[in-house]
Design goal:
The chain is an alpha/beta fold. The protein folds into two domains: about 70 residues, Alpha-Beta Plaits, CATH 3.30.70; about 200 residues, 3-Layer(aba) Sandwich (Rossmann fold), CATH 3.40.50.150. Helices cover about 35% and strands about 30% of the residues. It has nine helices and 14 strands. The strands form three sheets. Strands 10-9-8-11-12-14-13 form a seven-stranded mixed sheet, with helices on both faces. A hairpin with a 5-residue loop joins strand 2 and strand 3. Helix 1 crosses helix 8, helix 7 runs parallel beside helix 8 and helix 8 runs parallel beside helix 9. It is globular.
């Protein structure tokens, strides 16, 4: 299947709203480039055209939209390329075909398949680094944009009582469930297909929120994330590039949370904030 990239340029003040709309209407994560271009993806040229027309009807500011057909890739196997065993503090992360190399101690054996979250992206690795530092025994954890389930599974592996993963991409949910089963934590994690803004209040209060999404979506979800935390609870925000730090820190300050540790990995940036 040939995917189509839909590249959207609009005024800076409109990007957050358009980014959240694109995530909701495509069911997939989007990319925000350094120049502010938002990139969404559609499975066919027809779907790209429908998304384009709906987007233009939604937008309140002038925008430019460019469609680009991507080369065909066999995603059923290509997702394995370059995945290795990695260490994040106490936690070892390994793919199933390298499980024998994972060693002793807390570990997550993962097959991300086509779901986001293999540990090979800087934003996910930065989130895992902060998760190891902040998760405590018996914590209640909410994982927004759970993808392959990597952060939820890692949280309970490191001692959390339970974790709930929320994912807008319906196809990611069975992948995450298989990974939880394979790691022996299926009774401690639950994965839900839905909108994080709607689901988060249902599980509040929690001790730890993980939000490995995109900056524009993290900003849009800030009120729900803070409201879901118990007093003193911690939110770990990731899914952002280092260049976005200067844009996101003021949002945290305006929300009245206390910014703490941060982590950087291969251009990805994550930050922990306490209510």
């Amino acid at each position: 299947m040939s995917w189509v990239a839909i590249e959207v340029n609009t005024a800076p003040e409109s990007r957050g709203r358009l980014g959240a709309w694109l995530v909701q209407h495509t069911g997939h994560a989007i990319e925000e480039r350094d120049d502010g271009t938002l990139v969404a993806y559609a499975g066919t040229t027809e779907a790209a055209g429908m998304l384009d027309r709906a987007l233009r009807g939604f937008a309140e500011s002038p925008l430019t939209v460019v469609h680009r057909v991507l080369p065909e890739v066999d995603w059923s196997t290509s997702w394995r390329d370059g995945i290795i065993v990695r260490q994040f503090g106490r936690l070892t992360l390994a793919p199933t075909w390298l499980a024998d190399s994972a060693g002793a101690g807390p570990r997550v054996i993962l097959d991300p398949e086509t779901a986001f979250g293999s540990g090979e992206h800087g934003s996910t690795r930065a989130a895992l680094t902060l998760l190891d530092r902040h998760v405590k025994l018996k914590d209640r954890v909410l994982d927004l944009g759970s993808g392959s389930g990597i952060l939820s599974i890692a949280a309970v592996t490191l001692g959390a009582a339970w974790a709930v993963g929320v994912e807008v991409d319906e196809e990611s949910v069975p992948v995450a469930e298989r990974n939880a089963e394979h790691n022996g934590v299926a009774d401690q994690v639950q994965f839900i297909h839905g909108d994080a803004a709607d689901v988060a209040p249902l599980f509040a209060p929690v001790d730890l929120v993980l939000s490995n999404i995109l900056r524009v979506v993290n900003v849009a979800l800030l009120p729900e994330i803070i409201a879901a935390l118990r007093p003193g609870g911690v939110a770990i925000f990731s899914g952002m590039e280092e260049s976005e730090e200067a844009l996101f820190r003021p949002e945290l300050a305006a929300a009245g949370v206390t910014v703490g540790a941060e982590a950087r990995d291969a251009g990805g940036w994550a930050v922990a904030a306490r209510r």
